[in-house]
Structure formats: structure tokens, C-alpha cells
Amino acid sequence: MLIVFFGTMYGIIIEVLQYQLTNTRSADVWDVLANFFGASFSMFTMYLVKK
């Protein structure tokens, strides 16, 4: 679960930085969700491989 938490938090931080620091990029909730699902899929895959 820690992988999913840190992966999601990393995605949120990147989106906030994109919004705050650039003029050509914007924050997107879909990117945060993609990071969450990517981290969840990675955790699930690691669980299956170790099993």
C-alpha cells in the first residue's frame, strides 16, 4: 500500500508544480488518476510475481 500512496502523492505534487511553475502546462485530475492506477497495477503485479 505504501507504493500506491507514494506513487499517488508524487503524481499530485507533479501536477501542482505544473500548475504553479509553468505557463504551457496545466494540472489535470486524469493524470493523478493515471498515476494512482499505475501504482496500483504495479503493486498488484509485484504481489503476483512474489506469490
Task: Note the topology.
Elements: H1 2-21, H2 29-50
Helix pairs in contact: 1-2
Features:
51 residues
Summarize this structure briefly:
With 51 residues, the protein is mostly helical.
Descriptive account of the structure:
- The protein has 51 residues and is mainly α.
- It contains two helices and no strands.
- Helix 1 runs antiparallel to helix 2.
- The longest helix is centred in the C-terminal third of the chain and has 22 residues.
- The two termini are 16 Å apart.
- The relative contact order is 0.20.
- The model has no long low-confidence stretch (mean pLDDT 91).
Rg calculated over all Cα atoms: 13 Å
Instruction: Compute the number of strand runs.
Output: 0
Query: What composes the largest sheet?
Result: none
Determine the N-to-C terminus distance.
Answer: 16 Å
Q: Helicity, in percent? A: over 70%
Secondary-structure element sequence?
A: HH
Helix vs. strand class: mainly alpha
